[in-house]
Design a protein that fits this description.
There is one protein chain. β3, α4 and β4 form a beta-alpha-beta unit. Strands 1-2 form a two-stranded antiparallel ribbon. A two-stranded parallel ribbon has the order 3-4. It contains eight helices and four strands. It has one domain. The protein is mainly α.
Length: about 190
């Protein structure tokens, strides 16, 4: 049932937001020389790697840490707006339609992080990763939070990521379609309040 919901919602979602996708694509081409899309290998269901697709928000050849903070010099002004309203994640609906992702679930991590999962935590990898989820809502202000600590990477590794794992494991045991719909509504409502 969840997969059917994902297919229908992502298909009609892509059709509905296609004008927005077109406008954002043109703006990126005009103001951010380089590719429109950002692609990265992430860990998906059953530990299978897939390529996530997002709108590019950083300068090309950025280098540096995989952890970004509010005001990061690598993020362009347009990219900052896209990130604030999560518009950079709209292309992920294609990942949902393909079956790489779900609308709701744990955010897909890079292999560097998923390889750290041990024991019961690995149950998370039985799920399709999501565009949003309980952990995404809990840390919707993650970039701002990281901008306020002395060592963002250490804070991510020692505080945020373990807490996300805990939240994602709770989601694994207590998930349902109705709870997913509630997460989607909360996500949309929260974005409208930002």
């Amino acid at each position: 049932m969840k997969r059917i919901f994902d297919i229908v919602a992502s298909f009609f979602g892509l059709i509905f937001i296609s004008p927005i996708i077109l406008v954002i694509s043109v703006l990126i081409k005009l103001f951010m020389p380089g590719p429109v899309l950002f692609r990265q290998r992430r860990t998906g269901k059953d530990s299978k790697l897939f390529t996530i697709v997002k709108f590019r928000t950083m300068i090309i050849n950025k280098g540096g840490s995989t952890t970004s903070v509010l005001g990061d010099s690598r993020i362009t002004p347009l990219g900052a707006v896209l990130r604030k309203y999560k518009l950079d994640e709209l292309p992920e609906l294609w990942n949902v339609l393909k079956g790489d992702m779900s609308l709701v679930g744990p955010r897909p991590d890079v292999p560097e992080y998923t390889q750290r999962l041990t024991g019961e935590e690995k149950l998370i990898l039985k799920l399709r990763p999501g565009i949003t989820g309980p952990a995404s809502i809990r840390y919707s202000n993650e970039e701002r939070l990281l901008s306020e600590v002395a060592d963002p990477q250490k804070y991510t590794d020692e505080i945020i990521w373990p807490d996300k794992v805990r939240i994602n494991l709770d989601y694994y045991y207590n998930r349902s379609l109705w709870k997913d719909i509630k997460v989607i509504i909360i996500t949309i409502f929260h974005l409208n309040l930002r």
